[in-house]
Amino acid sequence: MFALVDCNNFYASCERVFRPDLEGRPIVVLSNNDGCVIARSKEAKQLGIPMGAPFYQYRDQLYKQRIAVFSSNYALYGDMSKRVMHLLAGFVPDQEIYSIDECFLQLAGYPAPEALVRQMQQQVKRQTGIPVSIGIGSTKTLAKLANHIAKQFPDTQGIFSFSHCPSLGIHSYLSRLPVGEVWGIGFRMQRKLEALGIHTALDLKLADPEAMRRKFSIVIERIVRELNGEMCIELEDVADPKKQIMSTRSFSQSLSDLPGLQAAISYHVRHATKKLRQQHSLAHGLVVMIRTNRFRAEAGAYYVSSTQHFDLPTDDPIQITQYAMRTLAAAYRPEFAYHKAGVILFCLQPKISRQPDLFTDQNPKKEALFQTVDQINQRFGCDTLKTAFEAGKTHWKMRQHLRSPRYTTSWEELYEVA
């Protein structure tokens, strides 16, 4: 028995938590540099604002319809996500965090799962202000579909379970869901299935699983079996370590000067190495990427992706920054205006498997230093301590003119009660 808990319109809901005056008012959240719409409240969807709508094209329409517009506030969203997941973990021990706003829960052995998830829903809303929808099924695929039904049909009050639903009832619901709504069926696979006459989730459920494997892959076979109540995808208590870590972002304005690019690359190295240490891994190499704006290439387009292999695998942010600066200097061309930069750490290995080297500095104080820096940035803000390359150079950072305060993660932006 699985439950999928999904926060409703998560980014928009986070903005509404600290702004009760926005209750019932349409909300949209913009992407990096306020480029396009990446999240919409229910009210904004009803007004016909499409996902991915370019902000500059829809600006007048948004303000004319009194839609509240926000820049992305990832510090707030990440912290609110942790609070929701922590509350849910207090109800059941087996949890798989699937995304920033979704998690699977294992409900096997609980005598009244519907009552339990109703209590979860109420507790999360009361303690965080975030509304959630919950789907229950005997497999993760059915739980995902049940969650979709809970969102689509208001009479479910945000909770739907397949566990006590008769076969005819299940078929009735699945017949109304396009096959593209099934977890794991992407756009291209949807087109292929529709060409075979499989248009709904019910059509896929009634398909022969072995024939689906021969026609497509074992992944599709597992999806068919899961739709029929046969568990093929287990709960993952711990996510597998990433094989590579990327940090990249567009600039609010184009850059031509090397110090500005150095500040951006140093920032990305710092964030990538933080994730590297969090999963207790080491990197064997680094990729530094810089590119011009492909839509504004009056002075010519330029894109470079330079790879640097390390002498020994490392998680040392100072050492990796030095590698990155040398790589950037070799790739930099002063005649271009750059629009985006980033780094990739690749060939990651578990830190515990590192073999000591006789001629390498193994100073234990360095490890203590990095842990202290991480703890300070965790407590006082992610940019409290940073490298000298970043000092005083902020013109490369994202455009966030419409960002709400970081109510829960910044002392200077705490919510004030009059």
Order of helices and strands: EHEEHHEHEEHEHEHHHHHEHEEHEH
- The share of residues in helices is 25-40%
Count every beta strand, where a strand is a DSSP E run of 2 or more residues: 12
Rg is 24 Å
Number of helices: 14
Shape: globular
Low-confidence runs (pLDDT<50, min 5 residues)?
none
Helix/strand layout:
Elements: E1 2-7, H1 10-17, E2 27-30, E3 37-40, H2 42-46, H3 55-64, E4 68-70, H4 74-89, E5 95-99, E6 102-106, H5 113-128, E7 132-137, H6 140-152, E8 159-161, H7 167-174, H8 187-195, H9 201-205, H10 209-215, H11 218-227, E9 245-255, H12 258-278, E10 281-292, E11 303-314, H13 317-331, E12 338-350, H14 364-380
Parallel strand pairs: 2-4, 7-8
Antiparallel strand pairs: 1-6, 1-7, 2-3, 5-6, 9-12, 10-11, 10-12
Keywords, separated by commas or semicolons:
418 residues, alpha+beta, four-stranded antiparallel sheet
Q: How is this structure best summarized?
A:
The protein is α+β, with helices and mostly antiparallel strands and 418 residues long.
Could you characterize the architecture of this molecule?
It is built from 14 helices and twelve strands. A five-stranded mixed beta sheet has the order 5-6-1-7-8. A four-stranded antiparallel beta sheet has the order 9-12-10-11, covered by helices on one side. Strands 3-2-4 form a three-stranded mixed beta sheet. Helix 10 packs antiparallel against helix 11. The mean pLDDT is 87. A hairpin with a 2-residue loop joins strand 5 and strand 6. The radius of gyration is 24 Å and the shape is globular. It has 418 residues and is of the alpha+beta class. The longest helix has 21 residues.
